[in-house]
Known about the structure:
Blueprint: E1 3-7, H1 14-23, E2 27-32, E3 44-47, H2 58-61, E4 66-69, H3 81-105, E5 109-113, H4 139-155, E6 161-166, E7 169-171, H5 177-188, E8 203-205, H6 206-218, E9 225-228, H7 237-248, H8 259-268, H9 272-279, H10 287-293, H11 301-316
Parallel strand pairs: 1-2, 1-4, 2-3, 4-5, 5-6, 6-9, 7-8
Amino acid sequence: MRRVLITGATGLVGRVLCPRLAEAGYRLRAALRTDRDLPSCIGEKVVVGDISLVTEWRPALADVDLVVHAAARTHVPRDTPQNRALYEAVNAHGTRHLAQAAARAGVRRFVCLSSIKVNGEATSQRPYQASDLPDPRDDYGKSKLQGETYLMQAAAGTGMEAAIVRPPLVYGPGVRANFLRIMRWVDSQWPLPLGAIHNQRSLVSVWNLCDLIETLLANRRPAAGVWLVSDGEDPSTPDLIRRLGRAMQRTVRLVAVPVPLLQVCAAIAGRRAEAARLCGSLRVSITATREALGWSPPVSMDEALMRTAAWYRAQCC
């Protein structure tokens, strides 16, 4: 039975990935920051503390065949300058230290959850592809690119395959930030001034993301490299809101306020970045992922929105 070490086992992705891998026959070991109770599907746990350059990984990596590194300092809009160094400490140097330890321990395959922010913040004429030159624009994206680079360096010349997954916005049970804010807007049934937005944005449900991670762990073909993932659809912001309305059984009222006016209002309110994400386009191509791995998103976006809406209702009621 193959043993998998998982960081971030209690996060948005880990909570769906762990039972899925256990059902598939993997033996799971969670690396935890602090001791806590875990679902029964996780048979082993090791408390490693904060992920950094001094984390002691040897007990956690003993007899481990595979690693899924999903823990990270996540993107925080308008983060303080004092906290920005934490991105590099955790996402870059922490990943390097874990990757080097995994290679020394004889890990066969290391799957690292990165971010489409490594590619950039927006697309225009064509979607992002894995082969594009990275162009991260903020501290979070730059730290993720550093982590990817360190992982590839640690794996070079060893028997460890490094697979990097760059998802766009991930949604599902436990989602936070902008997606949860949109759900609350829809739930309120107040008119939303977003009807004039004509953009395209890729998203990925946690179920499709976890399916790709499992595919990378199990695939007999080489899995090393960078893989992009999405639900296979690129809805506009108004289309996503309408579909959420159907999933949440709420009436959606969209008002066509001109986009330049929205951007001015957002700038005045200090929410320029949030407005850019609502109004701009960010598309990813999963053609290479489909062709090389024989993978396609198994869960439709509408089904994933229904599942996420069910979680939201359970939390709010």
